[in-house]
């Protein structure tokens, strides 16, 4: 066993965990432990202090509209630390409601607009007439992934330079006309895929490699000298 545990921040685990998204963290833990790492998962919830710099991986699961409204009231105070982490190219996975929070806003089922982190140029609108539910399959840079989606929020990119996670083979993805699924920016992945998505070992292994890389770099980074 390696001495220093890998640190995973699970953002609002107690509120954002629809359709078994916690399975993503369990799968990563399983593979990392097989590689000889200890893994520590911290639930960062309402009113907790949080510095993304202390972590090797950020995970943000999906949630119902009500829980998203609750989380939105607490989340924005962490914008700077999450943005710096993402921009530095450290790994993050955000599913469904968590993915929606990376954008500028989410207009919920009740017509209320909740502010997102405004880190990436995308926004989401709940469309009551079209629930996007069912099996999905999409082609990503890591290979094909099969999953399950269940959302009414339709996500639109506001910058054509933004890259999706994959090309839809089956299902809806970001919205029925998009033909693409999720988001891939630096080492941050956003996705509508539950199932959990990391049952697709190709994606799990790619993320695991990024986590290990970040972990090793964080441990060897020079600390501020004490005078
Ligand atoms: N409430 C959001 C929607 O319906 C997200 C759902 C989810 O995270 N599964 O789009």
Automatic annotation (TrEMBL):
- Output the SUPFAM superfamilies linked to this UniProt entry: Class I glutamine amidotransferase-like
EC id: 6.3.5.13, 3.5.1.2
Annotated InterPro entries: CbiA/CobB_synth, Class_I_gatase-like, CobQ_GATase1, GATase_3, Lipid_II_synth_GatD
Q: What domain of life is recorded for the organism? A: Bacteria
Q: Which keywords does UniProt give here?
A: Cell shape, Cell wall biogenesis/degradation, Glutamine amidotransferase, Hydrolase, Ligase, Peptidoglycan synthesis
Which CDD domains would you find in this protein's record?
A: GATase1_CobQ
What pathway is it annotated to?
Cell wall biogenesis; peptidoglycan biosynthesis
Q: Name one Pfam family in it.
A: GATase_3
Active-site residues per Swiss-Prot or TrEMBL entry: 96, 194
Domain CobB/CobQ-like glutamine amidotransferase spans what residues?
7-200
Transmembrane residue ranges: none
Reaction(s) the record says it catalyses:
beta-D-GlcNAc-(1->4)-Mur2Ac(oyl-L-Ala-gamma-D-Glu-L-Lys-D-Ala-D-Ala)-di-trans,octa-cis-undecaprenyl diphosphate + L-glutamine + ATP + H2O = beta-D-GlcNAc-(1->4)-Mur2Ac(oyl-L-Ala-D-isoglutaminyl-L-Lys-D-Ala-D-Ala)-di-trans,octa-cis-undecaprenyl diphosphate + L-glutamate + ADP + phosphate + H(+); L-glutamine + H2O = L-glutamate + NH4(+)
Please list the residues that bind substrate. Answer: 131
Q: How does it assemble?
A: Forms a heterodimer with MurT.
Q: Tell me the function of this protein.
A: The lipid II isoglutaminyl synthase complex catalyzes the formation of alpha-D-isoglutamine in the cell wall lipid II stem peptide. The GatD subunit catalyzes the hydrolysis of glutamine to glutamate and ammonia. The resulting ammonia molecule is channeled to the active site of MurT.
UniProt lists the family membership as follows: Belongs to the CobB/CobQ family. GatD subfamily.
Please give the name of this protein.
Lipid II isoglutaminyl synthase (glutamine-hydrolyzing) subunit GatD
The organism of origin for this protein? Agrilactobacillus yilanensis
């Amino acid at each position: 066993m390696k001495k220093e545990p890998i640190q995973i921040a699970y953002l609002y685990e107690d509120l954002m965990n629809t359709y078994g998204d916690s399975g993503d963290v369990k799968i990563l833990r399983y593979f990392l432990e097989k590689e000889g790492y200890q893994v520590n998962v911290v639930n960062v919830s309402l009113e907790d202090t949080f510095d993304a710099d202390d972590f090797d991986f950020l995970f943000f699961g999906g949630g119902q509209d009500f829980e998203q409204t609750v989380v939105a009231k607490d989340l924005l105070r962490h914008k700077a630390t999450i943005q710096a982490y993402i921009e530095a190219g450290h790994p993050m996975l955000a599913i469904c409601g968590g993915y929606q929070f990376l954008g500028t806003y989410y207009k919920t089922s009740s017509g209320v607009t909740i502010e997102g982190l405004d880190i990436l140029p995308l926004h989401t609108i709940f469309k009551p007439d079209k629930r996007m539910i069912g099996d999905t399959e999409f082609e990503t840079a890591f290979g094909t992934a099969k999953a399950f989606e269940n959302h009414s929020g339709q996500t639109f990119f506001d910058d054509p330079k933004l890259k999706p996670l994959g090309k839809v083979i089956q299902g809806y993805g970001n919205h029925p006309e998009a033909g693409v699924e999720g988001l891939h920016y630096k080492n941050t992945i956003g996705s509508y895929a539950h199932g959990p998505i990391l049952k697709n070992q190709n994606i799990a292994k790619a993320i695991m490699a990024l986590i290990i890389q970040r972990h090793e770099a964080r441990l060897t980074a020079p600390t501020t000298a004490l005078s």
